[in-house]
Amino acid sequence: MIIATSNSQLPNMPSELNPQTHLSPDHQIERIAFQSEVTGGYLLACELPFPVRMKAVLIPAEATVEANAYSMQLLILPTGDQDERERSVAARSWVESGNSGEPNRCLPIVVQGAQVFWSELRTAIIAPTERMQAVRRAVIEFCYFENELHDVERQIGDRWSLLDADTPLAFEFQESDVSKRKELMQRFRAVVNLRSKLARMTPHIECPPVYPPTLASQVAERLREKSRLPNRLEFMREQIEVFEKVYEMCSQRASDFVANRTSHTLEWVIVVLLAVEVILLSVDLLSATGT
Amino acid sequence: MRYSSIDVLRMVAIFVMVIVHFLENLSGIRDWSPDGFGAPLFTFLTGMSYRLWLSGQEARQTADTQISKITVRRGLFLFGLGFVFNFFVWLPDDVFIWDVLTFIGAALILLSVVRKLPTPVMIVAIVLSFLVSPVLQKLADYPAFWKEGYFSYDQTLSDILLGFLVTGYFPLFPWIGFPITGFLIGSIVFRRDAESFPSLRRLIIAGISLLAVSATAVLMGWYAPGLLPGALFKGWSMFPASLEYVSGTLGLTILVFTWCHLWMDRSAGRVPEKGILQVASTFSRYSLSIYLLHHIVHIWPLWIYGIAMNQETTHYWGNAFSYATSLTLALLFIVCCYYFLRWVDRAQKPTVESLMRWICD
Question: CA of A269: which chain B residue's CA is closest?
């Protein structure tokens, strides 16, 4: 589905800076979101590989997406008669301008005459028409995984202070900490979810080079390499391991404490009952002695 | 941190105690209706104050062994003071009557153990201390120790121990249930880690339930005497403390405390600090001194006057003044005591409380 054509105006872009004016008339701009199911009458752009179970869908430019849901814009420029340099500059300029009007980091790659300019929210592809679909699919997949990894990095970054606060509980759990069990469980669950997310991404980020190589596979490899996805994935694994270790120990301490407390309570009840029995016997004995 | 509810309730307990003792010892009046409510309130507040003191020590990160040592020392101090008090006020023959001071001393020592128990165990201990008491009273032959409404014992080890456990004025059973309940409720209501005020719904339900049990048992005792087992339910009686009395006074104490806590502690500024709270705080802080002082002030003159008149030392006990005079003297004592304690406070004079802290802490 073509959402914006060459005649449409991009939002928040002053006309003198609007790179769209330099784009060739045959360009397409697509807005893509990722959903588990295709809903709302949107068209399927491509299906992400198993086991991600997500679908890239084309959504209208004016459609609102859920808060925190990732959506990106894709500029498709088939190679043609226009000056190649001018086309590249226009595409790069469009990517860098971003949605908010502020320049974004742009990652350029050139492979076998195809060019890709990638940033977090916008990506431009310049490729021959016959190879465009394959490259487009590779770029969409990369954008999805990069965004997912970025999300994991952000979440882990936010959790360090919580981990610092929870670390003492990995060593000792007390009565006053019982009320924190639910929070600890939620944090442990969140960490496991992040680990599972990473595990599902790993085969697509650390996959070996495809043989014989294709333009799409080479684009994907270069994008992964330039954005350091495998390294970042490894760092995340190591960091999540720290979280898992601490929360596993917290969970163990909490379970041990609750189990011990139950048996401890039972033991004390028995002690109290025995004490009462001793007192009953003592009073009986004392009163008999007194008589 | 001082809680207005505790200060006010302790002041009420002190007022009841002073009036009851003046009326009883100077005029021989023993059927003044509130006389059974002072001691339960006082012993309940002992447990609650201990909880607050403990929280303060924990906040200062005092070592657990140090807390135990201080608690036991304080308990022994009060226990010993109780004997000294009995010796000098009630005369040597009545050293082992097991008055409230010896009880509070023993209760403090027990609380140093109880504080480490899980909540369900505390509840079991409280219930058992109440339920087992009628059985213990039966086993010890409680009525044999009480002549004309006063505790009387032989100077034998068995009688002394039975007095401490069951038959004295304030024996361990069932009275130990009051400070433990105070400690338990203090742990719930004054939780340090609570971000908001804990709900008091369960406390109110417990208080009403205990009152209902007591009222039902008392009414059944009146209208259907044979229906309840007589060994367990003996009607409303403080000596021996019957199940009806214990559950009724505990229920009332819980409800009164809950109401005071809601009304005073949770709504700062509702009661002006310069008025009744200042009076309550003064009486509350010097409750031990008042306990000793009011006895000395009204008992010793009786003994001295008896000796001076060539009578038995206890000749004028219970028949010195009329009801009105005794009541007036009690009220006069309370007023004078307040101004005396304010002076003591201002002049930083030593008191029994400061002596206890100096020796034990």
Answer: B121
Residue type, A171: F
Given an 8 Å threshold on Cβ–Cβ distance, is B139 in contact with A272? no
CA dist., res. B70 & res. B82, Å (int)? 18
Contact B125 A282 (CB under 8 A): no
Cβ–Cβ below 8 Å for A286 and B121? no
**Cβ of residue B269 closer than 8 Å to a chain A Cβ:** no
| DSSP-based helix, strand, coil % in chain A, nearest 5 | 55, 15, 30
Q: What number of other Cβ atoms are within 10 A of residue B359's Cβ?
A: 11
User: Which value does ipTM take for this structure?
Assistant: 0.83
Give pLDDT tens digits along chain B (361 positions): 778 889 999 999 999 999 999 999 999 887 765 668 889 999 999 999 999 999 999 889 899 999 999 999 999 999 999 999 999 999 888 899 999 999 999 999 999 999 989 899 999 999 999 999 999 999 999 999 998 888 888 989 999 999 999 999 999 999 999 999 999 999 988 876 666 777 888 999 999 999 999 999 999 888 887 777 777 788 888 888 999 999 999 999 999 999 999 888 887 667 666 778 889 999 999 999 999 999 999 999 999 999 999 888 889 988 889 989 999 999 999 999 999 999 999 998 999 999 999 999 8
Whether residue B136 and residue A280 make contact (CB cut-off 8 A), yes or no, is yes
Contact B124 A272 (CB under 8 A): yes
pTM of the model: 0.74
User: With an 8 Å Cβ cutoff, is B156 touching chain A?
Assistant: yes
Please judge whether A287 and B165 are an interchain contact, meaning their C-beta atoms are less than 8 angstroms apart: no
Chain B: residue whose CA lies nearest to A288: B140
Closest-CA distance, B359 to chain A, in angstroms, reads: 32
- The amino acid occupying position A31 is R
What is the distance between the alpha carbons of residues A74 and A61, in angstroms, rounded to a whole number?
11
Residues of B in contact with A273 (CB under 8 A): 124, 128
Q: CA-CA distance, A86 to A90, in Å (whole number)?
A: 6
Instruction: Return the ∠ at Cα B94 (arms to B164 and B79), rounded to 5°.
Output: 50
